[in-house]
Amino acid sequence: MSGFPWGAFALNLAWSAGAALAVVLATFAVSLRTGVHRIVDIAWGIAFTAVAVVTLAASHGHGDLSRRLLVAGLTAVWGLRLAVHIGRRGRGQGEDPRYARMLAKAPGNPMLYALSHVYLLQGALVWLVSLPVQAAQYIGLPLSAVSVLGIALWALGVSFEAVGDAQLARFKADPAHRGQIMDRGLWSWTRHPNYFGDFCVWWGLFLLTCDVPVVAAVCVISPIVMSVLLTRGSGKRLLEQHMATRPGYAAYQRRTSGFFPLPPRKP
Q1: Where is the secretion signal located (predicted)?
Q2: What is the reported pTM?
Q3: Per-residue pLDDT averaged across 9-22, rounded?
Q4: CA-to-CA distance for 120 and 25, rounded, in angstroms?
């Protein structure tokens, strides 16, 4: 229909599901030994990297080599940077309050509930959201202008995440800022530089599938799902519910864009 190897891609979907499942089950095993479920957040980026690497191997002989290497590399850079950042941020801390509250209300066995509602759900989301990462590696066309636009959007996203995370870490490291709201640097333009960065990363990776319109039509569900998660799911919505009672946060909300970066509004 488009010169796209749909049969090989369908087989790859099974390989990628296995890779994502292996990562989340290994993480669940570690959580059982440590008694801490926050490490599943570290596994998020690692699972995407595993899917990208498995696809790179499985797509041999199908997709354009430069595109395959590029897509796998971009995904790994984003995923491993995120995993390292979350690992450093949570080092020496106990359970994440989100998971503590969830498991305290869990019906039946809390560990089985965590397995189904946290780990396996996360593995399924990795598989779905990573469709562009998988499909792009089976496209046999050289990189186009749209691909370059996707790379630029990915770079913008990773830069926003990395800079925003570094600014927040420096702010929190200063004892003088204890109890204050971070409203400087990128955080004065958007309340969620890291989530906006993720948004750009996944729409950028999606653009790498757009040289074959029918493939892009199949994969567009992935950045849409990621956008919903970031803005209305476990990202922005839950974080702002948690921050709502912090002194000064309401004023910060009034002067700072909720997602897309915009100049700060005057009080």
Answers
A1: none
A2: 0.94
A3: 98
A4: 8
